[in-house]
Amino acid sequence: xxxxxxxxxxxxxxxxxxxxxxxxxxxxxxxxxxxxxxxxxxxxxxxxxxxxxxxxxxxxxxxxxxxxxxxxxxxxxxxxxxxxxxxxxxxxxxxxxxxxxxxxxxxxxxxxxxxxxxxxxxxxxxxxxxxxxxxxxxxxxxxxxxxxxxxxxxxxxxxxxxxxxxxxxxxxxxxxxxxxxxxxxxxxxxxxxxxxxxxxxxxxxxxxxxxxxxxxxxxxxx
Length: 222
Hints:
74% of the residues lie in helices and 0% in strands. By secondary structure, the chain is mainly α. The protein has one domain (22-221).
């Protein structure tokens, strides 16, 4: 046996098969199931809002809730797709239409209420409960998704982190709607959509830090 053959034999002696990742849609479905269980547990603890049946008869309210949930689901799918090197970066656009509908319906709700009760309807009240729930649940959910996709640090760390933040926050906002009563559309716009932007901003900063750290490690390794 030559020295080269001996080296190859020694290097390959302890190799173990690499476990292939499940398809991205299957992993996205698994994470969404986990997120749904957490949100359902929170709703069970706080209880459904007393006017939920009335709100479900309001088409604009239902549109807001569905758009919020759809934004979270589509952002989750986008994050898992973007974590793979052979996927198009355009996957980051997947949740955009749902997010536009979500914010748009909230904005139209603000204008409708302003037309009924005057400009005072455009001034949102302070809602620490909304802020605490979207941040308190949205950030851990986003963190768990990004942790699942930590191998993407060498691929697209910033888009993956941003999609993770959007997924966690939008799903948390959808869950919040089920048990938390709001004073008006302006309050929902600021404390639901607004706190979603805060979570996305935090994950954006994390993604950039993640990217810089990975680049520094590659440079040091070189």
